[in-house]
Design the sequence.
């Protein structure tokens, strides 16, 4: 361990630096502080970075003396931020609960008295005095438990806006003021209307605070997924510098640092293994249950768990650049974005509160004009009830809260959804295009068959083929090289290499002209494919029928054999495709491969519709064709060659291999290679959209039905007028219902297989 | 009764004028960074005026513990930021074309606009 005081870097946010010349001034001021080793200012960002041992307080003073203002940019980790948020939420919850008890301890006995005696009117002097005392007590409750509503209402009023606080403040305020008028000037109102509503005022404040408190609790649960992701981050890393191992906070790990991870430890930053080998559990990020073997040259990803061996790796991405940090960032963003379905609710909630206020006025006028005696009491009760029952929160919360839970749930299954729009569209997909290579298949072809003409050996064919293909990046070439390596075949040097697009290659090896490619190439070069009565075309076709890609191999214009390469189908592709089809989705396969191979793969995985020999640029055209046919098209590819098609599709799915995620390229990124991720993504989207619809429906119906009933629309027919306390309870629990319904999504399980 | 009805209609007209028709004065963002305080159900200031040629920083300081105040959205700019309690959060506004850009909380109870002249 290194116990020396380590030098630290402090980032400052500089205010008031308006010209480039300030930079020198500020840097000089900072450099003059004892203990500062280096001070640099970034004028574009108005930040300064200071390294050394100087405390931040002295640095701030130095900047201020120079005539500017500065503030320390917090370098705290996401975990600390989250802890603080939880503590703040808990404090807020306790505060709301305290307010609830204060209000209910006055409201409940008053309400019990009202229910038992039915006597809440002011007729005698004794009653006047006792109700005055109760009125003052109620005012105390309003000013303590309900203070935040009144302050909020006033602030927004001054600001020309109105919100939930406005409605509650107006509703309870009206009820209290009317009651006080009754207490002081009973003769000003008709005898039947000399009723006080202190119990309603206190109960409403209590119940709404209770609803808010429970909502704070329930909301905490909606961010469980992001908490889990943030919790994956390690706090420290064991860094090797100058041959010394030391534990550093992960914020201090630099690019290219060597880091050691022992068995059972979390990988702290992204990196490339330089020493040792191990198995790493990546399930927390990819959902893939099997640990992945890692050895020198392999990538490791922050947040995954080192299982078996001790490894040393070179840090390649640190801080906010690690895949995990990017995933967290993306999930956070997506959780706060809104799908189009929520837009109507947004438009409505923008006008909601003033409309409710107008409704309350109209309702009061209607009672005063047409109501029975005591009209004034009915008018006050109906206006108060309208103001209290209307709940803009339920409407406004309906969409975002479900998106938050849904996006988080998807992330848990290794599905990264970019935004609310992608989430909504994914639920409506009718056709899904799958790229064959790397999506349905593993994307790493293997040599499966070597067929030779009599007199030639397998070794000879492989040796020549591997010599020609050495250095090529083509996946088929890699497959051949791999086989040659496995068989320890020594390669010769190839010259005059020439790649013939969509045909194959030619080269010279050991003075012989070698031709390696498809049937077209052989025909063009007049190579006979029927050798001594042996029809190699037929052999090639039967290989192709088995989903293998055959390639002819000729020396000096004479065929010597066929090498067949196949890209194995992923284990669970078949069941995942079945899941999609069961959902009524039209599954289409695209591939650049030949027709026979495509046909064979399609047959094996149960896809009846496929297009073979499609050039990369034509993939986008296929997407367009399907869109013309009124399909909502999902396109799934590896995100590298398929970018135009992914962008054009209604929803582009990038399939990642492991955690090497193509985060920027698609609407939805599947972190593990399995196509089940695709079915999971669609299932989560559907469940989330269903949840949003339930919430929106509930909130709409609640308000559309609740407000007129509160206004007394049922009174002429059924003689029913809603009690303001009931309205308060309904309002308090309407938004809680929305949050709880969204929380039900947490129980969603992507059904595999 | 007539007076009450007239008073009611006037009240409705006032509500419409005060909440919908009235355009409050905007706060100009200059070289100094602007701090928007999120407290008691409002952004203060809530109407921000800036020129669209430069990148501007707006610092949001949330003093309101209510969960509603937590998220700041500027949908047109695809900005969505979680505001920690009592800690300034800097939001960078890129150069923009003339127009109005709304910012609000998740439920649109806290509302404000950025006007680009």
Sequence:
């Amino acid at each position: 361990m290194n116990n020396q005081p380590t030098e630290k870097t402090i980032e400052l946010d500089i205010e008031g630096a308006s010209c480039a010349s300030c930079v020198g001034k500020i840097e000089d001021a900072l450099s003059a502080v004892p203990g500062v080793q280096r001070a640099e200012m970034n004028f574009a960002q108005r930040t300064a970075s200071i390294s050394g041992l100087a405390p931040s307080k002295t640095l701030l003073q130095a900047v201020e003396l120079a005539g500017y203002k500065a503030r320390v940019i917090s370098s705290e980790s996401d975990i600390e931020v989250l802890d603080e948020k939880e503590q703040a939420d808990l404090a807020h919850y306790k505060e709301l609960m305290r307010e609830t008890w204060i209000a209910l301890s006055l409201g409940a006995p008053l309400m019990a008295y009202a229910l038992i005696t039915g006597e809440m009117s002011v007729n005698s002097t004794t009653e006047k005095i006792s109700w005055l005392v109760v009125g003052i007590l109620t005012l105390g409750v309003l000013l303590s438990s309900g203070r935040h509503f009144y302050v909020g209402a006033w602030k927004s009023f001054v600001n020309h806006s109105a919100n939930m606080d406005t409605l509650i403040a107006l509703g309870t305020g009206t009820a209290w003021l009317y009651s006080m008028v009754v207490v002081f000037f009973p003769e000003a109102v008709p005898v039947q209307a000399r009723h006080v509503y202190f119990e309603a005022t206190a109960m409403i404040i209590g119940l709404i605070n209770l609803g808010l408190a429970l909502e704070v609790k329930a909301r905490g649960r909606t961010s469980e997924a992001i908490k889990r992701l943030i919790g994956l981050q390690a706090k420290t890393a064991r860094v090797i510098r100058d041959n010394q191992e030391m534990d550093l906070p992960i914020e201090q790990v630099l690019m290219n640092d060597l880091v050691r991870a022992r068995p059972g430890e979390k990988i702290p930053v992204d990196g490339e293994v330089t020493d040792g080998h191990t198995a790493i559990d990546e399930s927390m990020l990819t959902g893939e249950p099997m640990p992945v073997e890692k050895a020198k040259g392999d990538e490791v990803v922050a947040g995954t768990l080192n299982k078996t061996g001790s490894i040393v790796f070179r840090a390649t991405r640190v801080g906010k650049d690690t895949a995990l940090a990017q995933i967290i960032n993306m999930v956070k963003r997506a959780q706060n974005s809104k799908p189009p379905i929520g837009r109507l609710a947004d438009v409505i909630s923008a006008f909601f509160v003033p409309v409710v206020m107008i409704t309350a006025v109209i309702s009061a006028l209607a009672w005063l004009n047409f109501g029975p005696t005591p009209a004034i009491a009915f008018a006050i009760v109906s206006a108060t009830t309208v103001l209290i029952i209307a709940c803009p929160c339920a409407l406004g919360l309906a969409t975002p809260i479900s998106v938050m839970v849904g996006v988080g749930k998807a992330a848990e299954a290794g599905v990264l959804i970019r935004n609310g729009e992608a989430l909504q569209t994914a639920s409506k997909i009718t056709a899904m295009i799958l790229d064959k290579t790397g999506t349905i298949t593993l994307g790493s072809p293997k040599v499966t068959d070597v067929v030779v003409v009599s007199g030639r050996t397998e070794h000879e064919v492989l040796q020549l083929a591997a010599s020609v293909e050495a250095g090529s990046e083509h996946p088929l070439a890699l497959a051949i090289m791999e086989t040659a390596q496995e068989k320890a075949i020594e390669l010769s040097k190839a010259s005059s290499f020439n790649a013939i697009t969509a045909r194959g290659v030619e080269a010279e090896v050991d003075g012989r002209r070698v031709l390696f490619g498809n049937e077209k190439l052989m025909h063009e070069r007049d190579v006979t494919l029927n050798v001594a009565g042996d029809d190699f075309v037929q052999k090639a076709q039967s290989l192709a029928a088995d989903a293998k890609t055959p390639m002819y191999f000729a020396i000096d214009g004479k065929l010597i054999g066929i090498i067949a390469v196949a890209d194995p189908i992923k284990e669970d592709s078949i069941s995942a495709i079945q899941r999609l089809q069961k959902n009524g989705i039209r599954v289409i396969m695209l591939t650049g491969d030949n027709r026979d191979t495509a046909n064979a793969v399609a047959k094996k995985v149960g896809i009846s519709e496929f297009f073979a020999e499609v050039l990369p640029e034509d993939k986008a055209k296929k997407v367009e064709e399907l869109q013309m046919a009124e399909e909502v098209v999902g396109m799934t590819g590896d995100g590298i060659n398929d970018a135009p098609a992914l962008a054009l599709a209604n929803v582009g799915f990038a399939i990642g291999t492991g955690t090497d995620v193509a985060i920027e390229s698609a609407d939805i990124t599947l972190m593990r290679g399995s196509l089940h991720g695709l079915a999971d993504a669609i299932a989560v989207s559907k469940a989330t959209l269903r949840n949003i619809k339930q919430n929106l429906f509930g909130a709409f119906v609640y308000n559309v039905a609740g407000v007129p009933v509160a206004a007394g629309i049922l009174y002429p027919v059924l003689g029913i007028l809603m009690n303001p306390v009931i309205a308060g309870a309904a309002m308090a629990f309407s938004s809680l219902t929305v949050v709880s319904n969204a929380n039900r999504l947490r129980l969603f399980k992507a059904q595999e297989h | 009764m007539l007076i009450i009805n007239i008073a009611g209609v006037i009240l409705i007209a006032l509500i419409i004028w005060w909440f919908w028709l009235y355009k409050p004065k905007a706060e100009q963002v200059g070289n100094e960074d602007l701090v928007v305080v999120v407290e008691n159900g409002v952004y203060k200031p809530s109407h921000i005026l800036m020129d669209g040629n430069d990148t501007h920083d707006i610092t949001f300081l949330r003093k309101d513990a209510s969960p509603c105040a937590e998220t700041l959205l500027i949908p047109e700019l695809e900005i969505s930021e979680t505001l920690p309690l009592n800690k300034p959060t800097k939001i960078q506004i890129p150069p923009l074309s003339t127009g109005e850009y709304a910012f609000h909380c998740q439920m649109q109870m806290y509302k404000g606009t950025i006007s680009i002249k």
